[in-house]
Amino acid sequence: MFFITDFKKKSCLETISKQVGQLQLEPPVVRNVQEAVTLLGRKDVRVNCLDEHGMTPLMHAAYKGKVEMCKLLLQHGADVNCNQHEHGYTALMFACLSGKKEIVWMMLEAGADTDVVNSVGRTAAQMAAFVGQHDCVTVINNFFPREKLDYYTKPQGLNTEPKLPVKLSGPLHKIITTTNLHPVQIIFLIKENPLLLDAEALKRCSAVLDLICEKCMKQRDMNEVLAMKMHYISCIFQKCSAHLQEQENQLDPLIKSLLKGREGDCFPVFQEKFIRESIRKFPYCETTLLQQLVRSIAPVEIVRVLLGVGNIGHIALNSSLAAAESDPMDLTPQRFSVLTQAITGQVGFVDAEFCTTCGEKGADKRCSVCKLVIYCGQKCQKLHWFAHKKVCNILKEKREKQELEASKEKKRQERLAERELKSAESTASQEEDNGESEASTVRESDSTVEETVTSAAAAAADDDDDETSADPIQPDAPEGAGQ
Questions:
Q1: Chain centroid to CA 468: how far?
Q2: Where is this region: Disordered (predicted)?
């Protein structure tokens, strides 16, 4: 760890942090970055200097979501794995907290260690999941270092030729690290690069993916998730290679077959069967991930023999998956969503819309007629129209019927609430009337008692008056009184 000199440390760090804080996605960005470049070019400044909490400028930039500043600091040698923070946080952890996928990817490409834990024992991916940054979790789970792929671009052992041509390493790495595993999206990525639009090139890429899958399962720290992903992409490459040979270097028929829906509900049967077949071909039947996938997508109970290995395990797996082949609609949720959640770590309760054609997250364009099918853009909508037009009006009628029923139910609930309110008001009024009646009765009773008491008192007074007004008895006159 390099530090700047003591008398310059505080001022230089404050200046760098100020540059990070002032960075905005407007024209002043260039000026601020240039000022930071000038500052970092000074001999008394060290890019990995620490503040009082153990945070480097890279950590500050990552936490504040400053993409350009992170790139600049990494170019000047910032230590992406510095963990001198008081709570053991790394720059990757701060990037996950910010929710910036670009910065997370940048840290990973710079060599960030994903297994480092902080003071409470959480990794960067666990922290991202804890705060709800699921896209960052997906980026980490799908990252594969480029140098591990470049290993296959060099001759190994007695081989004079590499297993993977150097020119294919870049395009293949882009597909390996993608977070959208929809088969149509994978084919889109293949079509984007002319180097991959060759049956032989796809076969070589598929062979390398199979080797990576095998290595993931046989290494000391077995990685079932990455192995399943490599196997799944390899299956797509093999299917594309076969179509390029049969369809004269055209992948459009394969895309249409993946999007074609069955009559009545436009459910993509071929796509579901392809994903089922890809899972079935996974060569390591004893893995926990495979058993979980089969339990999720197959409606029948998984027999105990599945726990075995070799051909017996494959027979059990084939039986379980084949039992559901007759009616893919009975498999809920769909195989693609189950596979995506297992590989990318994307949780099912994430509130997001996905493109019907390519599975891209964040799609916001809806069919103007039925308003139920969602696309990420006009390209995907046009590509899917051949299948969607068969059920568009049906979906519209269903939507209108559901809206009408929902409206009726809403009105019914409003009427019910209104009746309950009136009933409550009537009950309250009746109780109030009863209270007043009881109070009146009490008052009348009190008045009667008072009248009774008054009458009794008056009668008693009359009796007293009668006794007082009566003539008193005169005593006899004494003898000789008048004499």
A1: 104
A2: 402-483
Residues 6+ apart with CB under 8 A from 144: 173, 176, 177, 226
Tell me how many degrees the CA angle 159-163-164 measures, rounded to the nearest 5: 145
pLDDT digit string (tens) for 276-294?
899 889 999 888 888 888 8
CA dist 138 and 133 (Å) reads: 9
For 190-226, write each residue's pLDDT tens digit: 999 999 999 999 999 999 999 999 999 988 878 888 9
CA–CA gap between residue 207 and residue 429 (Å, rounded): 82
What lies within 8 Å, CB to CB, of 200 at 6+ separation is: 241
The residue to which tokens 């594309």 are assigned: 240
- 157-163 long-range contacts, CB within 8 A, separation 24+: 163/204, 163/207, 163/208, 163/211
pTM: 0.69
Crossing angle for the helix pair 91-98 and 134-141, to the nearest 10 degrees = 140
Q: Rg of the chain over CA atoms, in angstroms?
A: 41
Strand partners, 365: 375
Buried/exposed 17-55: b ≥16 CB within 10 Å, e otherwise = bebbeebeeeeebeebbeebeeebeeeebbbbbbbeeeb
Alpha carbon 451 to chain centroid, angstroms = 80
Instruction: Considering only the C-alpha atoms of the chain, give the largest distance between any 2 of them, rounded to a whole number of Å.
Output: 183
